[in-house]
Amino acid sequence: MARIGIIICARYRDCGGGKCFRALRERRGGFARYAADEPVEIVGYSTCGGCPGGNVEDVPAEFRQNGANVIHLATGLVVGYPPCPHLRRFQAYIETVHGLPVVVGTHPIPLKYFEAHRRLPFWTESRMDEVAGELMKEPRGVMEAYN
Ligand code: SF4
Questions:
Q1: Domains in the chain, please, with CATH?
Q2: Of all protein residues, whose CA lies closest to atom 7 belonging to ligand 1?
Q3: Which residue of 6, 7, 8, 9 sits with most ligand 1 atoms within 8 Å of its CB, as the best mutation to test the pocket?
Q4: Which of the 8 DSSP states describes residue 60?
Q5: Which residues lie below 8 Å from residue 87, measured CB to CB, with a gap of 6+?
Q6: pTM, full prediction
Q7: For residue 37, how far is its CA from the centre of ligand 1 (angstroms)?
Q8: Best of 84, 89, 126 for a ligand 1 pocket test (most atoms within 8 Å of beta carbon)
Q9: Tens of pLDDT, residue by residue, the chain (147 residues)
Q10: 34 within 8 A of 27, measured Cβ to Cβ
């Protein structure tokens, strides 16, 4: 059973989580890896703490104490603007220090953001197609439904 901790970008700290929780219910985006009939549980939800992301140092331990076996970095870190420059460091830190696997992404990338970001140089430079690969598998129609 997946017990999930979610870390969102603190710039969107007031977000109500609607897209993330919808995507979990629909098993889309970063949650497509879980079968529709596989029980999942959100055991923690927090922000990075604000640039440069100091909360990432310790909050995964709290998630883990509450049973987390996987961490999802929210899609806002990928296609907020600017994208989080520390995304890969967060992933490496959590996986190395906390021993928890990290999935980059929660809800599908809204198509309007995908179309905008993929035209910018950083998308290629930061190898976003590879880093957020699970999000790239979504059909355009699904991305559009998350606009
Ligand atoms: S850009 Fe990165 S470090 Fe800055 S607030 Fe967002 S997730 Fe945190």
A1: 2-145 (3.40.50)
A2: 9
A3: 9
A4: H
A5: 73, 77, 78, 104, 126, 131
A6: 0.96
A7: 33
A8: 84
A9: 999 999 999 999 999 999 999 999 999 999 999 999 999 999 999 999 999 999 999 999 999 999 999 999 999 999 998 899 999 999 999 999 999 999 999 999 999 999 999 999 988 888 898 999 999 999 999 999 999
A10: yes
